[in-house]
Amino acid sequence: MDDIVDLSRFQFAMTAMYHFLFVPLTLGLAWILVIMESLYVMTKKEIYKDMTKFWGKLFGINFALGVTTGLAMEFQFGTNWAYYSHYVGDVFGAPLAIEGMMAFFLESTFVGLFFFGWDRLSKLQHLAATWLVALGSSMSALWILIANAWMQNPVGAEFNYETMRMEMTSFADLVFNPVAQVKFVHTVASGYVAGAMFVLAISSYYLLKGRDIGFAKRSFAIAAAFGTAGIICTIILGDESGYEVGDVQKVKLAAIESEWETHPAPAAFTMIGIPNQEEERTDYAIKIPYALGLIATRSLDEEVTGLKDLMDEHEVRIRNGMKAYALLQKLREGDDTEENIAAFEELKIDLGYGLLLKRYAPDVVDASEEQIQMAVDDSIPGVAPMFWSFRIMVGSGVVMLFIFLFAFYQSARNTIGQNKLFHKICLYSLPLPWIAIEAGWFIAEYGRQPWAIAEVLPTYMGASSVTVDQLMFSIISIAAFYTVLLVIEIYLMQRFARLGPSSLKTGKYHFEQLENKEG
Amino acid sequence: MFDYETLKIVWWLLIGVLLIGFVITDGFDMGVGALIPVIGKTDDERRIMINSIAPHWDGNQVWLITGAGAIFAAWPAVYATAFSGFYVAMMLTLFALFFRPVGFDYRSKIEDSRWRNSWDWAIFAGGVVPPIVFGVAFGNLLQGVPFILDDFLRSQYQGGFFDLLNPFALLVGVFCLTLFVLQGSTWLQMKTDGALRQRARLVSMICAPLAVVLFALAGVWIANGIDGYVITSIGDLNGPANPLLKTAEVQSGAWLANYDKYPLTMIAPALGLLFPLLTWIASKYNRSGFAFFCSSITQVGVLLTCAFSMFPFILPSSIDPNFSFTVWDAVSSEKTLNIMTIAATVFLPIILSYTTWCYMKMFGRLGKEFMAKYKHSAY
Question: Which residue range forms the structural domain that includes residue A410?
Answer without folding.
Answer: 2-246+381-505
